[in-house]
Amino acid sequence: MNTRENGSEQEPVIRDNRKIDPETGQARATDGEPVKEQAEQPAPATDLASAELAIQLAERTADLQRLQAEYSNYRKRVDRDRSLIKEQGVAGVLTELLPVLDDIGRARDHGELTGGFAKVSESLEAATGKLGLSAFGTKGEPFDPTVHEALMHSYSSDVTEPTCVEILQPGYRIGDRVLRPARVAVAEPEEEPVASDS
Question: Per residue in 75-92, pLDDT tens?
């Protein structure tokens, strides 16, 4: 039996063998030995483990950045494709309506656009205008082969450059996209006769 069980009133002795004082955080001197200031050297196994962790962290970070970039590019591509598909759908519908708009224009030119039909044509033209359809091609503008289709050609002394002298069928565009070129009659300046030296 130990002394406690016998009823001894003596307090136990506690010896603090810690090398660092818990209150100050400084190293203690033990049994008369001076305190040695040592630079802490991590164990070689710790260096190897931390190096492996650093490599794994760099790999995971690179993977995450790559995935984030791929997702961002995917999102941009989907947004671009979505707007392109919308534009193509609108352009397809409006292209089918161009003959109707041509008939309305011819009826207006001949004075046959009256009554309820006039209101319907105005509504149709307003609806196509809201979708971005705009007509182009006016008499007297310079001929541009990217937006005009020349159906007739002549020479005239009244023009200084190839010019649209008559609009046979108006052209239509949505924004910068040409749905149908304007069909025009083009006049060029008359060629001057070459003087011969004979």
Answer: 999 999 999 999 999 999
Does the model's pTM come out above 0.85? no
Task: Spell out the SS3 assignment of 142-184.
Answer: ECCCCCEEEEEEEEECCCCCCEEEEEEECEEEECCEEEECEEE
Output phi, psi for 123, to 5 deg.
Answer: -65, -40
Look at residues 145, 198, 197 and name the one whose alpha carbon lies nearest to residue 171: 145
What is the distance between the alpha carbons of residues 143 and 153, in angstroms, rounded to a whole number?
11
Task: Round to whole Å and give the CA distance between 86 and 62.
Answer: 36
Distance CA 61, CA 9 (A): 64
Q: What 3-state class would DSSP assign to 39?
A: coil
Report the alpha-carbon distance of residue 24 to residue 111 in Å, rounded. 105
Euclidean distance between CA atoms 118 and 121, whole angstroms: 5
Q: 3 Cβ partners below 8 Å, 6+ apart?
A: 10
